[in-house]
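Final report, results section. Input specification for complex C-07:
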Amino acid sequence: MSISRPLPHDAAELHVTGQARYVDDIPVPADCLYLAFGLSTVAHGEITGLDLSEVRAAPGVLAVLSAEDFEHMPDCSPSAEDEPLLAVGKVHYVGQPVFLVVAESHLAARKAARLGRVDYRELPAILTIDEAMAAGSRFEAGPVTWSKGDAAKAIAGAARVIEGSIEIGGQEHFYLEGQAALALPQEGGDMIVHSSSQHPSEIQHKVAHALHAPMNAVRVEVRRMGGGFGGKESQGNALAVACAIAAARTGRPCKMRYDRDDDMVITGKRHDFRIDYRVGVEEDGRLRGVEFLQLCRCGWSQDLSLPVADRAMLHADNAYHIPDIRIESHRLKTNTQSATAYRGFGGPQGMLGIERVMDHVAAVLGRDPAEVRRVNFYEEAPGALPPDPRSTSPKKKAEVQSTPYHQPVEDFILHGLMARLEETSGYQARKAEIAKWNASNPVLKRGIALTPVKFGISFTLTHLNQAGALVHVYQDGSIHMNHGGTEMGQGLFRKVAQVAAAGFGVAPEMVKITATDTAKVPNTSATAASSGSDLNGMAVKAACDIIRGRMAAFLAERHQVAAEDVHFEEGRVFVGGADYAFAEVAKMVYEARISLSATGFYKTPKITWDRMNGSGRPFYYFAYGAAVTEVVIDTLTGENRILRTDILHDCGASLNPALDRGQIEGGYVQGAGWLTTEELVWDGKGRLTTHAPSTYKIPACSDRPGIFNVELWDGRNVEDTIYRSKAVGEPPFMLGISAFLALSDAVAACGDGSHYVSLDAPATAERVLAAVNRVRGDV
Amino acid sequence: MTYVLNLTINGAAQAIALDDPRVTLLDLLRERLHLTGAKKGCDRGQCGACTVLVDGRRINSCLTLAVSLDGVEITTIEGLAEGETLHPVQQAFIEHDGFQCGFCTPGQIMSAVGLIGEGQAGTDPERIREGMSGNICRCGAYHGIVEAVLDAQATFQDGVKRKTA
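Structure output:
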């Protein structure tokens, strides 16, 4: 059985020998042309003059396109059709593409793009959350508010009221492979596009629209990406559309690859937030009522901001039952890059809000933050079988508790999971030891934090929760598998191939993994929301079941047994005392004129969602985890290190423990980076000043915790997912919150506990130092 | 003006005519010689995806002008395996799951080969983490990377012991 085995990544040998091809590595025909954008230099302005004569005259330039060259400017938006490929009349942020250069080489295109002269009449630019709130600059008519019970009344009736605010920075994806696309014109106006995209169907849709062609004239292929993290869900549209337009106009292949600095300046990032909170709490730490104000900076176009902001609201409770809650969310329009999908999709920001509340409450009450968290946990659902005896919560309620959006929490396992992690990490003993150590060390201070994660799995736009697959068995028994998911390093292709191999009872090597291709599986959803293996695994299984059913029926008739008595195991097929090699059966079935090809389809059951009222069951299930992080800070400089991290994470019955472990470790590192060293800085003119890894600090090998213990929670999904596994792409990202709150704990150790230190994110050395000074009263 | 550059690349001597003295080694490898294993991640020497060995020393090929390398020996990821037999560092990266998306992997492996060759890292994970910190892995596969380097280093030491014994 190929399921649950820790098999390596599908292209492992290709990666280590440098043979794995990314878009920029695909050999191109000799007449290939190269593209570059000329970018806006002001944050908001009217274009009053555009002189591209020097660009046209530059060596190697074949064509230059701007607004006047289009009757209808192609749109690149994934949602509101508010992203023209090139600026029309106005520019809305520094870095917006204004014109497109088509040249004989990548370098010639880039050099020429610098020669354009654009005159602007500058308009007032809205850059910050405060400016946008003051100007009422937002998407949707007003704020979105969801509530359960009466938060204001509950807070008024509570023993204590605690208020605060946290600033949460954005995050650059820095997928190591920058955005890239290659368009190859075909006969009759058809177009083949290779794109580094998480969403080939959308690339196909946008390209077809731009070419005024039906979708069947465009084929998009994605073999792999060099990282995506959400940054290739919509941000690749502009390059693919530009390449297709230039290829259609010149009749030659066209390739575009953003230089890294351009990539960081042009493309959207994680949304930055400010979250204000007002909490009513009892003396034992139990929350009575909570009010959240979530202010979300979306940038110049809508992109995916509405569902991102929704998901922030959907994770405002994290793992805690809050009887009365009100969440108000403002989606603010600013003259900056259009913030976009990024691993967690708003969830991490919403979750950090409530985790900050937990720490604030614990500090005010003088209680252990882990204990405050535990008393607020959801109860386990009655009748749910706990995968571990300790997962039984103190008292079971007759009714299932529900989230602020009225979804019953039926699969809660954090009581047991957190108890086990506390034990294996030695949390309590270490906390006591750290307090002692801090008392005798005036310069260095250590901190520790334990935080849980409960993350909802499913696209909140319900119709996206579908997937298709195409499976062929050839007459030699080899298997060709295709599905709508894309591979960006998460190991999806390997996991789904394991599902296919298990379906036929053959070794995984028998299954050929092939590039995602809109001509093989149509109308796919983005590989996003951690849904890749849940959706595509089920679709592939459905296709395999159909073909195996036909093979079994054929043999059953031949041997006069029931089809259920035909077994596919270890490359052989067993029937009525006889057995055949799988390849032998494939040949017999082919010769009997029975189809060995099938499509599979899957749609997630049980989900319904009314986004306007914030009510329903948006998630099929929840994935859980918890982390303990210990840090040390230097109180003279604010410099800090992660000393040790312990993680216990729930992947259900893991399809592949090695790949899941990689996702957990990598997610933690990226999440901790978001909240510590990764700082995006815009200047007063709206220019992103951190547009390269020299100024934007991505975690390096040396930033990894010295002690890093990762364990998988050994459970099964209570819902009927593919082999009872759980999604793992996004949930572990939020384990990084423990690193941030450990820093906050270390800062608190510098004071006398008389007031709470509100550390903002990212907790750079500068912010840590300022917080240390604040808590010591040396401001 | 054309300038002829003599290089040994992955064991094969080559004379390459350069019409532009500003070509970087990375562009030469990727665009002229179609050796696309070394990647362009940031094009400014900060991500390490373009790491190759020049006379056994690891360098960022995106920051190195090809004309400055006349007469050197260059090893790229394509030249590491011996036929079908993977180099021990390549093998160790597979065994320890030292990657996810794979884009940084050629650079990580060349950097690891260089680091082991420098003989500075020893078996101290902390020194390996420092020594490998010029190669960014955005997927965060650092755990596997360090394990792979430690393992490969041990394989080399075993090999040396066996040879000298």
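Strands of chain B lie at 3-9, 12-18, 51-54, 57-60, 73-75. Chain B touches chain A through 55 residues (CB under 8 Å). This concludes the modelling results for the funded period.
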